[in-house]
Sequence to fold (180 residues):
Amino acid sequence: GEPETGLLFLEDVLASDADDASQEQERLSLLVELGRCYFELGTASADDFAERKFRMAVSLGGSDREAAEGALWLGRLLFRQGLYEACVATLRADVAADRWNRHPDVLADIHLLIGHAAVKLGQMERAVRAAQTALNLIRSIEKARENPGTSGLGRQFKDPYSPERQIEWSALRGVLASDS
Fold:
């Protein structure tokens, strides 16, 4: 089908750039995008490909934004598969290593996902801590946006009140409220 043809093309592009060190950032972005495409297909075999691409981006990316996004998508994949403990463990290991402090918007999303997985595991205290950490990160983004001259970072972050994040917050608040 059409999606599979597109994925094969992206795989070819990724393989053709494998020797060009100057395009490493583009390769990382392509790995994450390729993983997202497989993720969207939603089949078991596509999920296997997605997991490999996300793990590769995380391992190659160091502290790059693409590595953080690869970890976030890997967590989303594990969550969708019902592997909540693996989701939390994977994300917490990378967060604990302080790899992505320069990307608080992605970290906020990671902490929201940790909170959702913790709720599924019945770990309400962990869920509350994760949600609070995400909220603190979002507040730091707001401050950076209010004073862009002080850090120059405020403009590069995703909108902390994006529709996707609002849906995640609403879902987490609803679950936490029903369990109290």
Q: What stands out?
A: Confidence is low (pLDDT under 50) at residues 152-156. The two ends are 47 Å apart (CA to CA). DSSP finds nine helices and no strands in the chain. The CA atoms of residues 69 and 112 lie 14 Å apart.
